[in-house]
Amino acid sequence: MLHSHLTTLNAVSLILNTFKAEGLSSEALLNGSGISAADLNRADTRITTNQEMQVCANAVALKHDIGLELGRRMHVSCYGILGYALLTCATFGDALRLAIRYPALLGTLFELSLEDDGERVWFVAADYRESPAMAVFNAEFCLVSLKVICDDLLGHPLPLLATRFEHAAPDYRDSYAEHFNAPLHFTAKDNAFAFDRHWLDQPLPLADAITHQAMAERCRKQNLEFTGRQAWLGRIRQLLSAQLNAAPGLEGLAQQMKCSPRTLRRHLKDMGSSYQELLDELRFERAKQMLCEDQLPIYRIAESLGFSETASFRHAFVRWSGVAPSQFRA
């Protein structure tokens, strides 16, 4: 099963606002994600990357090159406390190293690193571990947004020397030139862009040592909160995933987590979720996997997911995805 961790609503809100101008309702983009309109009004709502990816998949289905456009809109101010911490760093290199230190706050699905070959520095995004179907979208979104962050930090565009992507060149490759003014290479070993190494020592125009110290400390605490919640959520997902054919219920799960049902309910609420929403998410993930990889009859899949009736499973799958299981398999 694909891994899942917590993230903010930044990317989801960006997608909704982008399509809102075209008159598309948020319901169509949120379809199957388990994210409600009420969740969007809570600044502290945390969602899983699987929920985020469902919204992104809905967006890509409507516009294939949306990853480039969305990345262009992810200015450094979109990252909250981390954004302020980056802006107030002493140098450009300090800011990039800080961003890499807190991937959970950056919301990236890649392992980020800086590779210095003596003349050029490559800002690398590698080791993608989410849905293969969304790999191109996520690579585009990631690299464009990182380039925007770099430009924002410096106060002007960062001159690039080269750009490379793991995927093959798409039919809209000409659009890449709008975001990367440098030689482009596809089917590469990773996703990255290069710049002259002297930029690492460039002082930032908004550097402020006192403000930076305060913001960096808040980033450290927020990262601890994120990673702690992710570990806790990971344990819950692991337990539920092993019991989808006979879900333990809220009380049974709380007993397995060695806490009270009230505590479990409160923690899930703090993460913008609930027992039923999490169970539905895991069932949906498993259902898609089985429909794509197995030849089991649909009634057998329903049984393995804990549904007493095939009709109940069909109804739930339509609610999650918008199509019937047989249509999804086809």
In N-to-C order, the SSE pattern is EHHHEHHHHHEEHEEEHHHHHHH
What radius of gyration results from the CA coordinates?
21 Å
% residues in beta strands: 5-15%
Shape, please? globular
List low-confidence stretches: none
Mean pLDDT across every amino acid position: 88
Could you tell me the number of beta strands?
7
Helix content: 40-55%
Describe the structure.
The chain is globular and about 65 Å long. The strands form 2 sheets. It has a 5-stranded mixed β-sheet. Helices cover 54% and strands 8% of the residues. It has helices at 10-20, 26-30, 37-40, 49-62, 66-72, 80-87, 92-101, 103-106, 135-154, 209-241, 249-256, 261-270, 275-293, 298-304, 310-321, 325-329, and strands spanning 6-7, 47-48, 111-116, 120-126, 162-164, 184-185, 191-196. The protein is built from 16 helices and 7 strands. A hairpin with a 3-residue loop joins β3 (111-116) and β4. By secondary structure, it is an alpha+beta fold. α6 (80-87) packs antiparallel against α10, α13 crosses α15 (310-321) and α14 (298-304) packs across α15. The chain has 3 domains: 1-63, no CATH class; 68-207, no CATH class; 210-329, Arc Repressor Mutant, subunit A.
Task: Write the topology of this structure.
Blueprint: E1 6-7, H1 10-20, H2 26-30, H3 37-40, E2 47-48, H4 49-62, H5 66-72, H6 80-87, H7 92-101, H8 103-106, E3 111-116, E4 120-126, H9 135-154, E5 162-164, E6 184-185, E7 191-196, H10 209-241, H11 249-256, H12 261-270, H13 275-293, H14 298-304, H15 310-321, H16 325-329
Helix pairs in contact: 1-4, 5-9, 6-7, 6-10, 11-12, 13-15, 14-15
